[in-house]
Amino acid sequence: KSSLMLHIDGSGPTAED
Length: 17
Fold this sequence. Notes:
- About 0% of the residues lie in helices and about 0% in strands.
- By secondary structure, it is low in regular secondary structure.
- The N and C termini lie far apart (about 15 Å).
- It is an enzyme of class 1 (oxidoreductase).
- Its EC number is 1.10.2.2.
- This is Cytochrome-C reductase 55 kDa subunit.
């Protein structure tokens, strides 16, 4: 999954985080 901003998607740690 694209962990760019969809941190709430359950992808875990994101670039924004």
